[in-house]
Design brief:
about 210 residues; alpha+beta; 10-stranded antiparallel β-sheet; about 35% helix; elongated; lyase; Cystathionine beta-lyase; lyase activity
Amino acid sequence: MTDYCELALAYGGFTSLDVKYLENLLKQPLNHEQKLALITPPPSVINAYFAEIYQKQGPQAATDYYYKLSQELALYQNQPSFAEEKPFVRLNLSGKSYGFSYQEGAELALVFSEEEQAIKPDVCFELAQIFPHYLVFVDHQHIKMSANPFESSKQNKLSLPDNLLTEGFRIDEHLILLKSFNLEELKEVSQQFKGQFFYGFEQREFTLYIKE
């Protein structure tokens, strides 16, 4: 049986001073979804917590908080939008308003814009810099983020003539990894390859996995 007061104290921004008030509110004839909505903190609180954790503990701690919150309070959204039927974390990417929320199941985040925007590599790399523990990719015209699914311990170096700051590696028959400290050069080199691109950022290097 769900203990809504416990959830509210753990994830809803409520304190022990609010328990009696919560108990009275929860006595109303509400279904499970309505009770979760009642104890869910407003978007401003979620975004403030997320930003504070990001600044003090780092990006992975911030997404861990938000993912756990999404699990416990059913904040999953498969088609999120700025209509904000459920709260989400807001982002500013290249001066434009974006948000992201998790989809139900595995830790898979969906990034969406307030206004329709063309999906550009620069935005994907910007996301990768903000969340370096994720890879960013485009799936059916949607930007998504997830943990790195690729095993890259075995690497065969590729020959990339005339590129001073970009390295290329063949991971397996269908996977290539490009790495560079220079984003513009990396984007130029990537034009030689075709496949699905996975954008990353690791140890101050831009990375690009290409699944052929």
